[in-house]
Amino acid sequence: MTDKKTIFYYSTQAEQLSAQYDSIDFVDVHGEWMHHIPEKGWALDVGAGSGRDSAFLAKKGFSVVAVEPAKGMRELAQKKQIDANIHWLDDSLPELRQVFSLQIKFDLILLSAVWMHLAPTHRERAFRKLSSLLKPNGKLIISLRHGECRDGRVMYSVSSEEHQKLASKFGLSFELASEKVKKDQMGRSDVSWETVVLTLPDDGTGAFPLIRNIVVNDNKASTYKIALLRSVLRIAEAHAGAVIDQSDDLVELPLGLVAFYWLKLYRPLIDVHKMQQLNNPNKGLGFVSQQGWRSLGELHNNDLYLGASFANQSLSQALHRTIKDIANTIKDMPAKYIKLPGTQEQVFSVKANRVVTPSSITLNHQYLGSFGSFYVPKRIWDAMTQFSIWIEPAIVNEWATLMANYASDMSKFSPSDYLNALRWDDPMRSTSRVRRRVDALLDVADVSCVWTGQSIRRAKRYAVDHAIPFSRWPNNDLWNLLPTKVSVNANKSDKLPSAHKLISCRQDIVDWWQLAWANEPSEFFTQASLALPRLGTDNRSYDDVFEAFLLQRNRILHLQQLAEWQ
Questions:
Q1: What is the distance of C-alpha 396 from the center of its chain?
Q2: To the nearest 10°, the Cα dihedral for 398, 403, 406, 407?
Q3: First vs last Cα of the chain: how many Å apart?
């Protein structure tokens, strides 16, 4: 970890140091390895300093996460790059806690003039962390400073041989950007540089074969294993903010959130379509009880959403009992029997808590976490986070196949009936809440189209747009539903707004959020904190939500390679 003395030096000397760094062009400093830069993607700039390198990468089209622990340097750089697609973090090696909370893998990681500040005792840990943040074929670029330091900074000796050994240990390929040591660009005769280029050839985790084995090959007397995988997949894709904690090996989730998604997935299949979920038709579902599931009555599936509150005591007790029954079923059935191939070792683990039945419920962090914790191997979590768009169709098709095989009347449902029943949510019904709010506001105030800034009162017709398209990322949270003109919504269609477009509309979006939800902020911020990275459970800043929204836009773009709307 960079020591406090060094961080203090960079912070107090920010003006002078930033001017020095910015006086030298990126190409002059890094030209020897520029051919390694991917065409686009995510870039992580650790020790971003003046923001010179981050700005260069952002202009090339990267979504950039810039880490700078020195407050003076960071704040100065942010002011200079306010309109750039750069997300600034106060974070440091070796832990990079803030970076890991983003749930992002990077195409390029740059450490320019950073490694010499890291104590040798922290380096292996830092290298492991950095390597785990790379995408397959991602590049880790580390410039190494040789020479003594005579100012207030603390530096340690470095060598390319050290990185060659670390690369071998953690499965990265190694090469030097240049055979010759490079002279210092600032003219210091006693300082020289060399740069190492490290590449992750493949993820090497075995996560894909394991997931495929569970989906395709595992024995299944019910759809429980598939339901658990899809529930975790939905969280990995849509709720980066829900992670309680994570280590190098495990990701901890609220058990109640996994149970909530189980409920959302099963309810239409059981209550609406009456589709068989067990190979034994005479056996009942362990999570469907009279006091719980059967007492939910006419509650529509779209009325069950994160942030929702239930004040009715009998309904609250029924919902609580249902989630509790599901949590126990998950613990005792699929989590217990999903095992590593050829072993008795469980893939997932559960720590359940004793819970008191409340008189009212709000589906938020605190309530969902009260049921206990659900643990996912980090490699499985990473695969689900990065590749859900390919994993989910396999899960859905297997679920449909199982239900068809279990059916006593094979002619009752067609293959398309099963697939339609497994669709996630009804986006048209889910926009009704926002429509009611717009209609109420139009009676007393003017409401603008967030994408054009033009009044929709005069247009008399409007649309509610899923800013991040529902067809690509099923999310009906209040922050993602925005009023717009019908013609603009039709033009945008299922495209993702470009970073430039989103940034240019920032004020209109924030103004809409404040106008619409300032009087009832709990639901808005609960949904945002569960879905978006970095916010935390107590955040009540609309500006912070926008920053996390932009970050999520970039994340979805690079995960799914969507067409952008300019």
A1: 22
A2: -150
A3: 41
Side-chain-side CA neighbours of residue 486 (13 Å)? 6
Give the Cα separation of 441 and 20 in Å (integer).
52
The DSSP secondary-structure symbol of 34 reads: G
Beta bridge partners of 496: 564
pLDDT tens, per residue, the chain with 566 residues: 568 889 999 999 999 999 999 999 999 999 999 999 988 899 999 999 999 999 999 999 999 999 999 999 999 999 998 888 999 999 999 999 999 999 899 999 999 999 999 999 999 999 989 988 988 889 999 999 998 888 888 999 999 999 998 987 777 889 999 888 888 888 788 889 999 999 987 656 667 777 877 887 777 899 999 999 999 999 998 898 999 999 889 999 999 999 999 999 999 999 999 999 999 989 999 999 999 999 998 788 888 999 999 999 999 999 999 999 999 999 999 999 999 877 899 999 999 999 999 999 999 999 999 999 999 999 899 888 877 877 888 899 889 999 999 998 888 999 999 999 998 876 556 788 899 999 999 988 889 999 999 999 766 689 999 999 988 888 899 999 999 999 999 999 999 999 999 999 999 999 999 999 998 899 999 999 999 988 888 899 999 999 999 999 998 888 777 789 98
What is 196-262 written as a DSSP string? EEEE-----S-HHHHHHIIIIIS--SBSHHHHHHHHHHHHHHH-GGG--EE-SSEEEEEHHHHHHHH
Q: Per the structure block, which two tokens stand in for 427?
A: 């986006």
pTM: 0.82
Q: Please give the sequence-ordered ranges of beta strands (E in DSSP) within 112-178, or none if there are none.
A: 134-146, 173-176
